[in-house]
Automatic annotation (TrEMBL), chains A, B, C, D, E, F:
<keyword id="KW-0820">tRNA-binding</keyword>
<dbReference type="InterPro" id="IPR020568">
    <property type="entry name" value="Ribosomal_Su5_D2-typ_SF"/>
</dbReference>
<dbReference type="GO" id="GO:0031125">
    <property type="term" value="P:rRNA 3'-end processing"/>
</dbReference>
<feature type="domain" description="Exoribonuclease phosphorolytic">
    <location>
        <begin position="158"/>
        <end position="222"/>
    </location>
</feature>
<keyword id="KW-0819">tRNA processing</keyword>
<feature type="binding site">
    <location>
        <begin position="124"/>
        <end position="126"/>
    </location>
    <ligand>
        <name>phosphate</name>
    </ligand>
</feature>
<dbReference type="InterPro" id="IPR002381">
    <property type="entry name" value="RNase_PH_bac-type"/>
</dbReference>
<dbReference type="InterPro" id="IPR036345">
    <property type="entry name" value="ExoRNase_PH_dom2_sf"/>
</dbReference>
<comment type="function">
    <text>Phosphorolytic 3'-5' exoribonuclease that plays an important role in tRNA 3'-end maturation. Removes nucleotide residues following the 3'-CCA terminus of tRNAs; can also add nucleotides to the ends of RNA molecules by using nucleoside diphosphates as substrates, but this may not be physiologically important. Probably plays a role in initiation of 16S rRNA degradation (leading to ribosome degradation) during starvation.</text>
</comment>
<dbReference type="GO" id="GO:0009022">
    <property type="term" value="F:tRNA nucleotidyltransferase activity"/>
</dbReference>
<feature type="domain" description="Exoribonuclease phosphorolytic">
    <location>
        <begin position="10"/>
        <end position="140"/>
    </location>
</feature>
<dbReference type="InterPro" id="IPR027408">
    <property type="entry name" value="PNPase/RNase_PH_dom_sf"/>
</dbReference>
<dbReference type="InterPro" id="IPR050080">
    <property type="entry name" value="RNase_PH"/>
</dbReference>
<dbReference type="Pfam" id="PF01138">
    <property type="entry name" value="RNase_PH"/>
</dbReference>
<dbReference type="Pfam" id="PF03725">
    <property type="entry name" value="RNase_PH_C"/>
</dbReference>
<keyword id="KW-0808">Transferase</keyword>
<comment type="similarity">
    <text>Belongs to the RNase PH family.</text>
</comment>
Length: 237, 237, 237, 237, 237, 237
């Protein structure tokens, strides 16, 4: 029995509230249960120096956690003067995941930045961020297409992410904080709506796992991502 | 006529949503029109080194703005590796304002940190932050009193803040972003529910002002703060 | 009775020694009693990036305190690797104050930086810095006009600053360190020789204050600034 | 055909030179072809603050690349003043991998730091680092056991890592720099000598992949790691 | 002929004004011609962590240059967020030089910090700093002895420093900025009043030099330091 | 008797292994006994901003020490976020030494960076770095000349460096770590193959020294450098 009473292959409630803020070209507040992440997509008609003049664009991401998103207050990264290794690892993952479904040539010479800020954390913040960032990106790209700034749709598929893990010997879907702290293995899968995998990361925490375990986690992830794909479609409208 | 069509002494709509997040001892989402600030109050049973053993507590604040809270995306301070002078100035002001209504001896040897994060900006973020922080602090202190950790109420009055300015020759209350950008003078007042002043800051931007101008701004601020005091009382319940 | 034996509306001795150093386009050593600040004005024929090509100039300030300007040695900010919030707040105030009396269009596309370094501190360092910076700026601008680089005088008035506070219930002028540490309220006023106000900042420390208190502090500040204006005129010669 | 002429399941030459430096408790120079990494294991009788008094030890890693380990000179991270996101991600991975085969209770209240410095880079630096770090750790732990400081062997298995990828449609083992730059997918597997998986990370670069692709990469990784396990045993002697 | 008209072995005017500031335990304003350095000695009854409990004290130095001490304004190190290599090299040299004449055991478990801040620069700032720092240290130590905190005089000799160089083929004493910029070789000598050498540093700039050149520079340095020793004695009184 | 059993004027074994890594335009692994430094020379067809358009090139150096090059592990400078004063002092010395034998006009508008990374430390790391950097520079310049990118040889002499010191009253050559820790004076000489001196630095540690001592150290340095010049010639081939 999971601490939350959920079945092993049961996601938490997924909600995606589009247009949560008004200045960004795209924005959503996404929740996986008590995990809530605000994502904005900002379009800028400029590029990082190393991409200039190549006839293509860039999609990147930044990630942050409000100091009291967590059970006990964490130090503000802006006050510490640097982003932790964890933060940098997560924002690199989010950026790669979104680029996996974006044709950068069709995007044209512009940059879209996905800012993912965790308002409240209860496990799975990076997977909620990726899943919400897709919606913010989709909204921003739709706006660019409506304005005629982009001719062909650069987005090639939906992308979503979910965590899975082995908790007391049982593979389970969408770990919350309590499960995450006690899991033997902890995985994040970034999947595409066409069935492909963009990223698989499975880490032994308490105990290592075998090939069969890896496959069972991947199959749980597919169940979860299919539900997220539906919620994304509904939010985009 | 103000760009927003408001009368000179008319505040924007004030909303205060208490308990916006669940981990913090106190939290609110406060809005002054399109300006929205999330404030959490975190109680910690520890003190900054220079206060240890003096038999009193500390109230402090941190302030941040999400990168796309504004019309165009700003660089994330955690990524830049330092907080701007503006950020530091604002968080020092918030901290002083809250301490002006807190008896630190009665608070006991603990620290309360008010994290004020701007979700969306349309002028007056620091005054909304102070006004919301009071509610978050009040909720957190009520919890400590209910738990018997504090015997006597350390909070001595309500505190609220509002901006005023001279816009096209007319003193106006609660500047939004459009007015703020064009104001000749820009003031922030931090007022107490007992009628006193905790902080007055009036800065000439385009044109300097005289004593009469200063007094008219102060009187507008009283009108605004009285409305905020009411909204605070309602939110605390 | 004030600790120094001064009357409530009595300034400390003001001395302004112009041309204290030889490389800067303008320089002064200003003293308010034992507070001594060295100010240099540096003219550079370049602008911050965001001002380029707008046909106007810029006046800015930096502030520092020598590690042993104070009673006990403070850590050197260059060694700590960052400027404190207090330092940044003060240098922003000095810059705004000088810009309040400078017509940036008439200054032309050049930048003047006022470096204010506190040699010895006994309260009121920021107000001495502003008052001295005006003289350094005036000397530097005079040089630019004598060289024919500026046609019309860009300086529109004199500016000076002084602190006031409520000490043991009495409003007093020009706080020294001993009074400052014990004051109930602490204010800084930046006033113009034409009678106007460039900046008013009044902060409750031990006890909040009322409108009447604010006005009494402002009136003391006028007395002080008038004396500083005279000393400035004499120093410029 | 691979650019290097290797068969798809062919590793580059593996060499492990133990005792490459003399001060460290354990040290090796490991090469996977032209990739050369110097790893030292440093034993310290102290712990990070958050582990003190828990009766267990810690194994951690740091990673660096000499500025001219690569084809063109990269900026020195010490001169830039911060470690890149890539560096931090890699050193977190190395630390987790080594902890997956270490019983921290049996290690006792001490810390072992694996410093992995890339002397020359030609793809696969992080996997060479993990594979070499195991040998340095084993040598250091053997020394502690010989000195009687540790009673029971805390190391529970061998650990090794190798990269795999999909290159021009073919899954290949142990990517060199040329292949890595052009790969559609890029994976790193950290495997144990008991057959288990400590970490699996598979990232789509040019094209996403499917479950079958993930499994084929994992099987190649087993082939490679088995050869590394043999080389480790020979190096430890 | 030297640009300044001085003879090859002629120092610039040396002035040492003791007690220039009032808070520090020792302070001087020293000038070598137009080079002016303010030095304060701060006594603290605490030690750096690595010296605690060894029954001895520490003498250290920090060095800074006001932004407009020089012909053109330099960036403030506190604003840049780090001290330059040059600054660190100089402050290490000053500290070593003072420790060469201090018996740290007799000093007792306290630290004296010499802050050397250049008010105006015209070549030779580090040598003026060392020469002035000796006086500030002597004054501070005299105070400690007068208070009975130190029993035996820990200062074993006077120390002074001067620069020399080879300018247009001629060895010259006490380079000013114009000479320093054009010198073929540039040397700094730190000498003791007992005739010994604490530090010799001779650097080829435009042209390398030979043993005879090195000795001629050293002999010039003795001439200069003897004059500084006299000025130190007079300043201490 | 020296701790190592060497005669006072006896160098440790000097080995210089050229072409130690393959990407750099020049590279060596140099050893002075147990001190081992890897030096690479990187040629870049770009210049620091302040040198652009002057028709000359630049030679510069960076220095680092692997965390466990030493007896006990030191903190990684990249992790600390800044280079120590010692590191900066050393890399400035290395750069100056190489420039003393390079005609920057003949080098043309390009930069050569010498990266000196200490693999193992046993005293004299900076002198080994300079001596090895000359070989790496020579190899890189030979390559540029062979490619016809440089017409005339910009290198005017060989340069080498060695440390000397006064150990238990005896001047000795090429201090190892044990001697260095106990030396009364510690000197580094950078000498040219034409007999001239590029840099002399002699520092009193435990006891100051006299002119005769300085000369005896210089003469020992000549003996050492002559042996290094021979080893350099052999390594270049």
């Amino acid at each position: 029995m999971r601490p939350s009473g959920r079945a092993p292959d049961e996601m938490r409630a997924i909600t995606i509230e589009p247009h949560f803020t008004r200045h960004a070209e795209g924005s959503v507040l996404i929740s996986f249960g008590d995990t809530r992440v605000l994502v904005t997509a900002s379009v800028e008609e400029r590029l990082p120096p190393w991409l200039k003049g190549k006839g293509e664009g860039w999609v990147t991401a930044e990630y942050g956690m409000l100091p009291r998103a967590t059970h006990t207050r964490g130090q503000r990264e802006a006050a510490k003067g640097k982003q932790s290794g964890r933060t940098q690892e997560i924002q690199r993952l989010i950026g790669r995941s979104l680029r996996a479904v974006t044709d950068l040539k069709k995007l044209g010479e512009r940059q879209i930045t996905l800012d993912c800020d965790v308002i409240q954390a209860d496990g799975g913040t990076r997977t909620a961020a990726i899943s919400g960032a897709f919606v913010a990106l989709r909204i921003a790209v739709n706006k660019l297409m409506a304005q005629g700034l982009i001719k062909e749709d650069p987005i090639t598929a939906q992308v979503a992410a979910v965590s899975c893990g082995i908790h007391q010997g049982t593979p389970v879907l969408d770990l919350d904080y309590v499960e995450d702290s006690a899991a033997d293995a902890d995985a994040n899968f970034v999947l595409l709506s066409n069935g492909n995998i963009a990223e698989a990361q499975a880490t032994a925490e308490g105990a290592t796992y075998d090939e069969e375990g890896l496959l069972r986690l991947l199959r749980l992830a597919r169940i979860g991502c299919n539900q997220i794909f539906e919620a994304q479609v509904k939010a985009i409208g």
